[in-house]
UniProtKB/TrEMBL annotation:
A Gene Ontology molecular function term of the record: pyridoxal phosphate binding
Domain Aminotransferase class I/classII large as annotated: residue spans: 66-406
Top-level lineage group: Bacteria
Keywords: Aminotransferase, Transferase
One Pfam family it belongs to: Aminotran_1_2
Range of residues in the leader sequence: none
Record's protein name: Aminotransferase class I/II-fold pyridoxal phosphate-dependent enzyme
Cofactor: pyridoxal 5'-phosphate
Biased composition range(s): Low complexity: 7-20
CDD domains the UniProt entry points to: KBL_like (cd06454)
């Protein structure tokens, strides 16, 4: 009663109505896109529902498609060695790790997965987080702060950008894969900061080209920054045995300060990791909020990822097949006159088509050809740079690849001839 009386004595505040979500500009943007799609009869290509495990082939609505929208680069997602190992982990540990590993403890599958990851990179230790996205956010925001500088390739993934933002560090970007430009940025900036972190990706997710690791290392040795390499699309893909960018360039992996990767692609699971020195792992396990205050990786996912890494080691021919498929795709696409940008034909091959609407329309038309490939549109890429992005896997057949490329070229030509392109879908 005292509290009520006190509140009554306070001057009246104007009553503020809660903001309605459907009044927000964000919602109006989403809605405008939907309405335009409906108006011109273009279906939303996103969130397509798959009836089965979607690898090189998928089934949607009871119909089979060649699928170029799965990160299951080495086809391990449905491999019995992976699924059996996951089932055994469920039987033994249940599903959840229940709480942070600090509190709920670890399971042997965590320890063994991290040991396998450290072995892949030939480094002391690895630490797993519950997603690749969270790995970048948690690790970057743990290692740098407001007194520090982060310089990154302009095309790095949104999760790394989120980590930098959360860290409060000064952020500068350098032109894509332009080490000379990085040199210029560092020369003008780096002396005033406590720590300097440079972030690149092994294979770039939107364009399918590769970081110039030797040149970056040369700069690292000159400036003494930390070099962090996101291997999301490189593990299982680059290098003779699929160990990634360092193997591709024949570089000692211990030269790189911070290896980052995700378990959702080649490892056909869910989660992410940082690999590097024991001190780095110790710091992250004790100080990274996304590790300390978030649930431990589900044991079933750790077991699945561990089994996929075993396949990576014991069956390097999968990586070889992936490489052959990527090369074939790129070669066919070029012969068909498609614009594959700067892709080198590893895991990711974009086909640039111009504006966002055309990319959406092309993706939808390809469904009629039995091909599933997703558009990447503004704002994920600048307007005018919209594309279909083809993820190649080791299980695609030559016929699937040739058919996908031929259909893409034919349908794109049809759209161009009809001059289908009303500008951006993004209002
Ligand atoms: N880094 C890169 C380069 C990525 O492409 C992605 C996701 N595609 C991530 C990090 C985040 O990984 P995840 O989806 O496993 O959270």
């Amino acid at each position: 009663r005292n509290r009520a009386a006190r509140l009554n004595r306070q001057p009246q505040q104007p009553v503020r109505q809660p903001l309605r979500f459907d009044a927000l500009p964000e919602y109006q943007r989403v809605n405008a896109q939907r309405k335009i799609g409906e108006l011109i009869g273009v279906d939303n290509p996103f969130y397509r529902s798959h009836d089965i495990a979607a690898g090189a082939t998928t089934v949607m609505g009871g119909r089979e498609f060649a699928n170029f929208a799965s990160y299951d680069y080495l086809g391990t997602n449905t491999d019995p060695k992976v699924t059996e190992s996951a089932k055994a982990a469920i039987d033994r540990f249940g599903i959840s790790a229940s709480a942070s590993r600090l509190v709920a403890g670890e399971r042997p599958v965590h320890v063994s997965l991290e040991a396998k990851l450290a072995q892949v990179y030939g480094v002391d230790a690895a630490v797993c987080f519950v997603s690749g996205y969270l790995t970048n956010v948690a690790a970057i925001s743990c290692l740098v702060g407001p007194q520090d500088l982060v310089v990154h390739d302009e095309f790095i993934h949104n999760s790394a950008l989120a980590g930098i933002k959360q860290s409060g560090a000064t952020r500068r970007l350098f032109r894509h894969n332009d080490v000379e430009n990085l040199d210029t940025v560092l020369r003008t900036l780096s002396s005033d900061f406590r720590r300097v972190l440079v972030i690149v990706e092994g294979v770039y997710s939107m364009d399918g080209d590769i970081a110039d690791l030797p040149a970056l290392l040369e700069l690292r040795n000159r400036y003494g920054f930390w070099l962090m390499v996101d291997e999301a699309h490189a593990l299982g893909v680059l290098g003779r045995t699929g160990r990634g960018t360092f193997e591709h360039f024949d570089i000692d992996p211990r030269e790189i300060d911070i290896w980052m990767g995700t378990l959702s692609k080649t490892s056909s699971s869910c989660g992410g990791y940082i690999a590097g020195s024991q001190a780095l792992a110790d710091i992250l396990k004790a100080e990274a909020g996304g590790f300390v205050y978030s649930v431990g990786l589900a044991p079933v996912l750790a077991a699945a990822a561990g089994a996929a890494l075993d396949i990576l080691r014991s069956e390097p021919e999968r990586t070889e097949r992936l490489r052959r498929n990527g090369t074939l795709f790129l070669q066919c696409a070029r012969e068909a006159g498609l614009d594959t940008g700067i892709s080198l034909g590893f895991s990711v091959v974009p086909v640039l088509v111009g504006d966002s609407l055309r990319a959406v329309q092309l993706s939808n038309e390809l469904l009629e050809e039995g091909v599933n490939a997703l558009p990447i549109i503004h704002p994920a890429v600048p307007e005018g740079m919209a594309r279909l992005r083809f993820f190649i896997t080791c299980n695609h057949t030559e016929e699937q690849i040739r058919h996908a490329v031929a259909s893409t070229a034919r349908r794109l030509k049809g759209l161009q001839d009809r001059n289908f392109g009303l500008g951006s879908l993004d209002m």
